[in-house]
Structure formats: structure tokens, C-alpha cells
Amino acid sequence: MKIGLFFGTYNPIHVGHLIIANHLAEHSDLDQIWLVVTPQSPHKKKQSMLDNHQRLEMVYRATKDYPKLATCDIEFNLPQPNYTVDTLAYLEEKYPKHLFALIMGKDNLMSLPKWKNADVIMGNYPIYVYPRKLNTSFDLESFSSKAVTHIDAPIVEVSSTFVRQQIKVNKNIKPLLPLAVWDYIDEMNFYK
Asked: Which of 85, 57, 88 is nearest to 71 (CA)?
């Protein structure tokens, strides 16, 4: 089975995440998409982040009706901070019959050479890149890795940061979230 790993803090998960994940599930050679909830990204501050299990619950609620999407908490039990290369090694050991691929936005691909053991990642794992609007020109062809596949997915310019900011100032952003996630955030009074 070929599994696409879509890493994120999902603080919170929003419709943009679901659109990308479902698009890849339906329009690529990936059999499943695992939304890997990252406890602490080495590139993000934790101050405004909800508890790991609260974010996991939101991802579960958002994906439970999508048979090709799965929630993954694999990084919760790995040393912090999490590095993708270490998570990939652990997953390969735990699931030797699966083939793993990475899913990332074009913006993350630009920073990939700075990641821990980027050469190992680029040399051993397929990378599915979805488009993002960027203020800089970046040519995917400049990546020598044959592993990079550009996915013609919809460009969705919604961010978790924007969602949190709007909730904090009491704006109705319900259309940007799966209904089950909106209900959970509202019920728990998150991001106020």
C-alpha cells in the first residue's frame, strides 16, 4: 500500500487541509492519506497550540467520513522535536509492507534542503507537491530529485493562523472549517 503522509500541527484543521488531502486521495496513485498530527514542529512556536489530543480529535472528526483519509498520532511517542526523517525511519520499521511518500506545499519544498537529512528524504521518498501562491519565483524543475511530483490541486489560501485570529475576534469563520471541527471548537471554547 502506498501511503501519503500529510504532516501538520493542524491547529486547527480546516477545509484547505481536507481539500488537498482528498484531492490527492482521489487523483494520485496514493492508496491512503495519513494526516500526521505533529506535536511540535521544529519551525513553530508552541504558545498558541492546543493540546496534542485535542488537535488529534479535530483531525479525527474532520476525516472520519473519508475512507481514504486517516488520522495518525505516530509522532506523539517519538522524541521531541520531531524531524520528518526520523518519523519516516520509524514508520518504515513499523509498517515494512507500506511505501511512504510525503505531501507538502510548494513553500515547504523550497525549505526542504534545510531540513535534517534532506538528502535522505529526497533520495528515498516520493514527494507530492501541491501549489501555493508565493511571492517568489520557484521552479520545481530546479529540483533534481525525480521523486518530486507536482499535483495540480486547487490552490486554497486558508491558514490555521487566520482561523485562530478570526475566532479570537469573534468572527464567523464556520465555512472554513469542517462542521464537526467547528462544533468541537465552539463547544470547547478554543482560540478565544
From this structure: 57
Q: Is 114 helix (H, G, I), strand (E, B) or coil?
A: helix
Measured CA to CA, the distance from residue 36 to residue 44 in angstroms comes to 16
For residue range 75-123, what is the model confidence (pLDDT) as tens digits? 999 988 889 999 999 999 999 999 999 999 988 888 888 999 999 999 9
**3-state DSSP percent of the chain in helix, strand and coil, to 5:** 40, 15, 40
* CA–CA gap between residue 99 and residue 154 (Å, rounded): 25
Looking at domain 2-156, which CATH architecture does it have?
A: 3-Layer(aba) Sandwich (3.40)
Measured CA to CA, the distance from residue 11 to residue 51 in angstroms comes to 9
Residues 34-68 have pLDDT tens digits of 999 999 655 556 567 899 999 999 999 999 999 99
Alpha-carbon span 111 to 109, nearest angstrom? 5
Closest to 9 (Cα-Cα) out of 80, 115, 111, 97: 80
CB atoms within 10 A of CB 186: 13
Pairwise CA distance, residues 105 & 130, whole Å = 5
Does residue 187 register a pLDDT over 90? yes
**Residue 181 cell numbers, joined:** 471541527
